[in-house]
Amino acid sequence: MAIKKKKKKKVVVIMPAYNAAKTLEKTYRDIPKNVVDEIILVDDVSKDQTVEIAKRLGIKVFVHIQNRGYGGNQKTCYIEALKSRADIIVMLHPDYQYDSRLIPFMISPIELGYADFVLGSRMLGHGAMQGGMPFYKYWANKILTFIENLCFRKHYSELHSGFRAYSRKVLMTIPFTLNSDDFVFDTEVIAQIEMFKFPTSEIPVPTRYFKEASSINLKRSIIYGLQTLKVMLQFLLHKFGIKKYDKFEKKLLDVISPFYAKQILKAEKRRK
């Protein structure tokens, strides 16, 4: 009796881009092409040559007509990845802040069935401070993660990294299109993953802070921190049945347009 060979999972890297012309090619060059099947970049109305460079590199590019923000950019990224029949989706910032050579380690827990979400943590080891993370950001990250861990009853080392890997199942389930278009989108996604009880994992990653790497200023950091606390309050209110939120109970196909739902379902059938 012949043993049926297990089908390789399709790995798609998504890049939410804004003014990444100076760092995009370096980020792209480090991506292990033997592991990644496709790269999708969504440009959020950059004012530099991001789109031109991405097309020259052979990256699949989508360009927003108007700026939609960091969260809005990710929404387009994930929809396009699902339409592209991705089994595993890796979010990688094109600003060279995260080491794209670690993608095989990011996707391994998902490939092996141990997790549906993997977070690249800068707080495991000494990656954050050695990489130049500002002192105030380091401690703000630690404090917010501590509060979030209390809400989730988990022991994450960090919950504010932009280097993440998702199984298709996660993104087909959580209604991420209901989330903010701002930076707090990332927090809402993790809260949704915890609400739907998906298995998660972390791996240690270094980081690079330099002039061209994207980073929000102190004012935006404070706003982000307050928004994160608000999401935690909503999470607890929903969890204990005090107030219900659609983003914690509806499914993706219930909240997007029938047009996109049909395209995603068509891609789902073509995967099988």
Write the layout of secondary structure elements.
Elements: E1 11-17, H1 24-30, E2 38-43, H2 50-56, E3 60-63, H3 69-83, E4 88-91, H4 103-111, E5 117-121, H5 127-130, H6 135-152, E6 164-167, H7 168-173, H8 185-195, E7 200-204, H9 218-239, H10 252-255, H11 258-271
Parallel strand pairs: 1-2, 1-4, 2-3, 5-7
Antiparallel strand pairs: 4-6, 5-6
Helix pairs in contact: 6-9, 8-9
Describe what you observe in this structure.
This protein is α/β, with parallel strands linked by helices and 272 residues long. The protein has a single domain (11-271), classed as Spore Coat Polysaccharide Biosynthesis Protein SpsA, Chain A. Helix content is 43%, strand content 13%. The chain contains 11 helices and 7 strands. Strands 3-2-1-4-6-5-7 form a 7-stranded mixed sheet, sandwiched between helices. Strand 1 (11-17), helix 1 (24-30) and strand 2 form a beta-alpha-beta unit. Helix 6 packs parallel to helix 9 and helix 8 (185-195) runs parallel beside helix 9 (218-239). The longest helix is centred in the last third of the chain and has 22 residues, at 218-239. It is globular and about 50 Å long. It starts with 10 loop residues before the first strand and ends with a helix. The model has no long low-confidence stretch (mean pLDDT 92).
CATH superfamily: Spore Coat Polysaccharide Biosynthesis Protein SpsA, Chain A
In CATH, the topology is named Spore Coat Polysaccharide Biosynthesis Protein SpsA, Chain A
Measured by DSSP, the beta-strand proportion falls in 5-15%
Q: What is the architecture at the second tier of CATH?
A: Alpha-Beta Complex
Total count of helical runs of at least 4 residues? 11
What's the CATH C level? Alpha Beta
Widest β-sheet, arrangement of strands:
3-2-1-4-6-5-7
Radius of gyration: 18 Å
| The number of domains | 1
Largest sheet data: 7 strands, mixed
User: What are the segments in which pLDDT stays under 50 over at least 5 consecutive residues?
Assistant: none
**Number of distinct beta strands:** 7
First-to-last CA distance: 22 Å
The backbone outline, from C-alpha atoms, is: globular
What average pLDDT do the residues reach? 92
Helical residue percent band: 40-55%
User: Which series of helices and strands comes N to C?
Assistant: EHEHEHEHEHHEHHEHHH
- Look at the helices and sheets and give the structural class: alpha/beta
